[in-house]
């Protein structure tokens, strides 16, 4: 890691060091809301795009240049890990991902192949390398992957879900199958994230986008041990951001995942005020978030007021990275995303 990158606002905030202003980047900062991305995607399905390292790097570098954010994140998808693990995934416009051989029953779990080597996802690692090579040296690159539960939920449900009945039934009904499923995902994701760090990422973010469907006790019993396994398998000095959404009551369990680790941050959605989160978990865990992405569909005055409100919740405190509470919505005007970044950079907090 270069000295300049180490002294970036993002990495200093992850170390709880004072910064001259809050760092800012946006989840899905490269994507469907950008005309350049839609043009590059023309005639290609999403998975085809993700398997093209040149296009992935170009999409992210364009976003970084246009927005002026303080970090880049790898352009990829949580589910690219499925193919080498034996799951057939397709992406259909408007319907999201579909897995045509889901692990619906306990007996199906044995079909899941653990990722033997991250080289099986060489296009992901090449996208990391190409993005890092072209990114300004002072800007960190964030790698990412899905958390074990979120990947398991997709694999069992066969796609998106509103009620998560199948994955919850498997979780409660068959402890042996659940342990096998979650352990294979935890170890596979650890291999992928470790390889992303070796390829040039400075930080990794773990996305637990579906875990909010669980009760607190189920989260602690059936999910946290496997996230802990994943975290423990990563290089000990690697900065980690853990993002979960949908249930603020999980925050204490999430905090405990990083109790023996430096540079561990929690990224929150908009359902809990950052000030309240800070009071609950203390001052030793960096926080990321947490503007509702829908605000970016509003007027400049609303965007400015909401962004300032969030900044004021942790005013004068180190260890905050400004971000959305989830990804940029496809209908977001690009100029509004740029406005938000400018507001944070010019606020001085």
Write the layout of secondary structure elements.
Blueprint: H1 3-6, H2 9-14, H3 35-41, H4 46-50, H5 53-67, E1 72-73, E2 89-92, E3 96-99, H6 122-134, E4 141-146, H7 148-157, H8 165-173, H9 175-199, E5 203-208, H10 216-222, H11 224-233, E6 240-244, H12 251-256, E7 264-267, H13 274-281, E8 287-291, H14 300-313, E9 320-324, H15 334-347
Parallel strand pairs: 1-4, 4-5, 5-6, 6-7, 7-8, 8-9
Antiparallel strand pairs: 2-3
Helix pairs in contact: 5-6, 7-8, 7-9, 9-11, 14-15
TL;DR of this structure?
The chain has 349 residues and is an alpha/beta fold. The chain is built from 15 helices and 9 strands.
Q: How many DSSP-defined strands?
A: 9
Distance N terminus to C terminus?
27 Å
What is the share of helical residues? 40-55%
Overall average pLDDT: 96
User: Beta-sheet strand percentage?
Assistant: 5-15%
Could you explain the architecture of this structure?
- Helix content is 44%, strand content 12%.
- It is of the alpha/beta class and 349 residues long.
- It has a seven-stranded parallel beta sheet. The protein has a two-stranded antiparallel ribbon with strand order 2-3.
- Helix 14 links the parallel strand 8 (287-291) and strand 9 (320-324).
- The mean pLDDT is 96.
């Amino acid at each position: 890691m270069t000295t300049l990158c180490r002294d970036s606002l993002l990495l200093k905030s992850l170390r709880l060091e004072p910064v001259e202003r809050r760092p800012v980047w946006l989840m899905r900062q490269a994507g469907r809301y950008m005309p350049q991305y839609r043009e590059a995607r023309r005639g290609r399905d999403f998975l085809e795009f993700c398997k093209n390292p040149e296009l992935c790097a170009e999409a992210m570098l364009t976003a970084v240049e246009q927005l002026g954010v303080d970090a880049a994140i790898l352009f990829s998808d949580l589910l690219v890990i499925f193919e080498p693990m034996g799951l057939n995934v397709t992406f259909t416009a408007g319907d999201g991902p579909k897995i045509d051989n889901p692990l619906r029953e306990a007996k199906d779990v044995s079909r899941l192949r653990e990722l033997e080597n991250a080289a099986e996802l060489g296009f992901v690692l090449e996208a990391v390398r190409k993005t890092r090579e072209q990114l300004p040296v002072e800007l960190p690159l964030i790698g990412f992957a899905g958390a074990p539960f979120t990947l398991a939920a997709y694999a069992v449900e066969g796609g998106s879900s509103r009620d998560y009945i199948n994955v919850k039934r498997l979780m409660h009904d068959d402890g042996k199958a659940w342990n096998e499923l979650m352990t294979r995902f935890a170890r596979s994701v650890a291999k992928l994230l470790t390889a992303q760090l070796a390829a040039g990422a400075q930080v990794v973010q773990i996305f637990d986008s579906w875990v909010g469907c669980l009760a607190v006790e189920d989260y602690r019993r059936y999910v946290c041990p496997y996230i802990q396994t994943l975290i423990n398998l990563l290089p000990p000095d690697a900065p980690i951001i853990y993002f979960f959404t949908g249930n603020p009551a999980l925050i204490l369990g999430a905090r405990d995942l990083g109790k023996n680790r430096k540079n561990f941050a929690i990224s929150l959605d908009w359902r809990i005020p950052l000030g309240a989160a800070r009071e609950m978990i203390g001052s030793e865990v960096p926080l990321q978030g947490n503007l509702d992405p829908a605000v970016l569909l509003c007027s400049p005055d609303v965007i400015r007021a909401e962004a300032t409100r969030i900044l004021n919740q942790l005013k004068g405190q180190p260890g905050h990275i400004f971000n959305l509470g989830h990804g940029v919505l496809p209908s977001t005007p690009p100029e509004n995303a740029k406005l938000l970044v400018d507001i944070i950079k010019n606020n001085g907090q």
